[in-house]
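Figure caption, in words: inputs first, then the predicted bound structure.
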Amino acid sequence: MATEDRDACPHDEGEQPSVGAGNFEISDRAEQIIQRHGEALKDGRLPAKVYNDEEIHQAELRRIFGQNWVFIGHETEIPEPGDYSQRYIGKDPFIFVRGEDDEIRVLFDSCTHHGSKLCRAEQGNSSHFRCPYHGWTFKNTGDLAGIPLKHQAFDNLDPSEWGMSAAPRVENYKGMVFASLAEDGPSLEEYLGDFKWYLDIHLDIAKGGMEVIGEPHRWRADSDWKSGSDNFSADSYHTGVAHRSVFEVGFGSEEISGTAGQETQRHVTHIDSGSTSLRLLKPEDEIYFGYPKEYVDTSKLSDAQADVAAACGAATATVFPNLSFIHLAATNDPDKDLDGFLSLRQWQPAGPGEMEAWSWVLAPAAASDEYKQRAYDVALGTFSPSGNFEQDDFAVWDGIADAAGSVYAEQSNFEMNYQMGLEQASSASIDEDFQGPGVAWDTNLEEGTCRTFHGNWHKAMSGEDVGMSYPEDHL
Ligand code: FES
Ligand SMILES: [Fe+2]
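Bound structure (fe (ii) ion present):
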């Protein structure tokens, strides 16, 4: 675990795997920014500069995205041999592909001849990838299958030495495929750690599991990728303000989505690579994120997990570095009931203060086609580039990147406040009765979840734990 005092965690059990840290050399200036970040974060302050800086961006690509497990896609996106889709680790292009042998691979999208990009379509089905430059052709397993004029031009070349490169490590957790550019490090399950307790609720809630509906939405924004990870990790303090208009027109329920100070919320931090926010009603309400009862199946969950699922109408979460979740009961029509969907979102670093957001919609695999369409429509109306909630969030995140990239922010070392929940700064207290792993707070007036994300960022960028601890009277 990267942040805060592990000894102080009531649910702490055993040694925690660490977020990986890279050792890519950076300038003294960038090292100073990272060092100041660690010192400030102990006091709940965050230097704005880290949200928009070229050197920090380059270091993030290497020290964070080059070292840790990064989400690639869900196996239901490529169900047939030959199905493929373009994906990215940081800014590096990969092909997420199911080979003729049914194995899922994450292949580096570069021809081994002179390096051209092989994959020109966002997704599709193909037995081979043929390079548009000189025509070298690779099977969808990555093997080199054909070279134009081979016997005249490359008579001694051994094709087995020149197959496509692949991400060094690829692992699948319940259909979610991750890859790591680091040859060594914790396994995916070790990396997810206790967060699996929450992930299992999202993935095992429905009969037959969850399946991706349609293609992921993708859009560019002048916002830093960390704004998405920070917000979903979980800032529900903003919900009643930034999303006020959504509630006013009846596209969501304030009781379910949550507003500042609401005591039905649990903010959970200290869960290895992640943190989460759960808006909990009473278990007897059996809301299950808005899914019709006939699609719900809690047989794979523990009693405690099933109780959380029954009571939960909205949950957000972030797995470091850039994968977030929202599982939500909402509507795209005030005259219709709330319906459930799960959105996976990935905040791709596109440049300093710039991101490309990706959003996948998932619904119960066993649901009717009509329900899947309904879930997709609700997601489109709420969390997508045209979604009401989504647009509210990006409107404010753009401003953070603007400020962070300013000369003034750099010269004055402008810092943002992340102190809620520190040093008796809020009324939030730990819910000792909460059954899940991590530290659960009894309201959302607590930003340990966000500090966990930024602590993980600091660990990955510097190799050092920030070592924040909770005040005595909160334990
Ligand atoms: S770069 Fe691909 S065939 Fe030459
Ligand atoms: Fe939001």
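The pocket of FE2/S2 (inorganic) cluster (ligand 1) is lined by residues 111, 113-116, 131, 133-136 (CB under 6 Å).
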